[in-house]
Write a structure and sequence with these properties.
Elements (H helix, E strand, L loop, with lengths): L4 H26 L14 H8 L7 E3 L5 H6 L4 H8 L33 H15 L5 E6 L6 H13 L3 E7 L2 E2 L2 E2 H4 L5 H7 L4 E5 L3 H18 L3 E6 L17 H9 L2 H11 L5 H24 L17
Helix pairs in contact: 1-2, 1-11, 1-12, 2-9, 4-12, 5-6
Length: 321
C-alpha cells in the first residue's frame, strides 16, 4: 500500500506524541507526582496508530489499562490527558478517572479500562449501534494476550459473529499478561486461532512495522464498514517497560529487553520513509521539536493545575435519565 506523504507524517506525529507522552508520564510517576498506577505503551506505538489512522470520528474504540497510546492515536487532547493523569481539574474526565480510565466520547474514545477484557463488549455495542443507526461507523476493541483468556472476550467475539456487526478486534500480543508469559498463561498456543474458531477472518501483523499494521487494519476495517462484518487482527508488539512503572521486570532477560528496544517502530518508520525518498529528515525533526514543546507545556500546566473541587465529588458518577 502506497501511503501519501501527509498520511505518513501524521502517523509519525501521533507515534512521536505517544513516545514523548509516555516518557514524561513515566518520569513523573517515578517521581511520585502522579497518583495511582501507570502502565506505559512505549514500544507499541505502531499498533495503535496503524489501526487508528484508518478511523474517523464516527468510529469508536475500546481500550485497556495500557491505554494512553490508544487515546493519542484516536486524537484525544494531549493537555486534557495530562491533566487527567495528574488527577487535576480540566482533565478529560474531570481529573477523576486517572491513567486507566481516560475517555472522550466526542471523538469516539469509549475509554481506557482497568477491567481486563472489558473493552471488547463495549466495542461490540458501539458496532451494533452503528449498524442499527446506519452511521457507517466501526467499533474497534484493543486488548492484550492476557485479556484473551477472559470470558468477556470470547463472548464478544461470538456476539459480533452472531449479530453480524462492523467490529474489529485488535489483539496486541506483547507476550505477557502482567508478569506472566503467554507461553505459560495460554500454553503458547496461536491466540488468533481462537478467533478463527468463532468464524472470524484473522490477519496478523508485525507491530514494529507501521505500514504492515496499517495495511492489515485497513483491510478489516474496510470489510467491516462496507459489508458490516467483524474481523480480527493480531499484532505482535514489544512492551518496553514493565507491567507498571516501577516493575523491575525480573521475569525477563536483559537480552530480551535489549532486543525489544532494537525493534523501535518510530525509528523504523522514519528509516523506511527516508530511504524511499518520501520524506526528508528535516520534516521529521520539525515534528519531534513540536511534540517536545507540546509535552513540556502540557506537563507544566498539569503540575500547576488545581485538583477537582470537592463539590464535584458526586458528579459524573451515575447517569440520570
Amino acid at each position: 500500500m502506497q501511503l501519501e506523504r501527509g498520511v505518513i507524517l501524521e502517523a509519525y506525529r501521533r507515534m512521536a506524541l505517544i513516545r514523548a507522552f509516555e516518557e514524561r508520564v513515566g518520569a513523573d510517576s517515578m517521581a511520585g507526582l502522579i497518583p495511582g498506577f501507570v502502565h506505559l505503551y512505549a514500544g507499541e506505538e505502531a499498533a495503535a496508530v496503524g489501526v487508528c489512522m484508518n478511523l474517523t470520528e464516527k468510529d469508536w474504540i475500546g481500550s485497556t489499562h495500557r491505554g494512553h497510546g490508544h487515546c493519542i492515536a484516536k486524537t484525544c487532547d494531549i493537555e486534557g490527558m495530562m491533566l487527567e493523569i495528574h488527577g487535576k481539574a480540566g482533565g478529560l474526565c474531570g481529573g477523576k478517572g486517572g491513567s486507566m480510565h481516560i475517555a472522550d466520547l466526542d471523538i469516539g474514545m469509549l475509554g481506557a479500562n482497568g477491567i481486563v477484557g472489558g473493552g471488547p463488549p463495549l466495542a461490540v455495542g458501539a458496532a451494533l449501534a452503528a449498524k442499527r443507526l446506519g452511521t457507517g461507523g466501526v467499533g474497534v476493541a484493543f486488548f492484550g494476550d492476557g485479556a484473551s483468556n477472559q470470558g468477556t472476550v470470547a463472548e464478544a467475539l461470538n456476539m459480533a459473529v452472531v449479530l453480524k456487526v462492523p467490529a474489529v478486534f485488535v489483539l496486541e500480543n506483547n507476550g505477557y499478561g502482567e508478569f506472566t508469559a503467554a507461553s505459560y498463561h495460554s500454553n503458547g498456543i496461536d491466540l488468533g486461532a481462537r478467533a478463527a474458531g468463532f468464524g472470524l477472518p484473522v490477519l496478523k501483523a508485525d507491530g514494529s512495522d507501521y505500514f504492515a499494521v496499517h495495511e492489515a487494519a485497513a483491510e478489516l476495517i474496510d470489510r467491516a464498514r462496507t459489508q458490516g462484518l467483524p474481523g480480527f487482527l493480531e499484532v505482535k508488539v514489544n512492551r518496553w517497560h514493565g507491567h507498571f512503572t516501577g516493575d523491575s521486570q525480573a521475569y525477563r532477560s536483559q537480552e530480551e529487553l535489549a532486543a525489544a528496544r532494537l525493534a523501535d517502530p518510530i525509528r523504523l518508520l522514519r528509516e523506511r520513509a527516508s530511504e524511499a525518498g518520501l520524506i526528508e529528515a528535516d520534516a521529521f525533526d520539525a515534528i519531534d521539536q513540536d511534540v517536545a514543546e507540546l509535552i513540556e507545556r502540557a506537563s507544566v500546566q498539569a503540575m500547576a493545575a488545581p485538583p477537582p473541587a470537592l463539590s464535584t465529588l458526586t458528579t459524573d458518577v451515575y447517569v440520570s435519565y
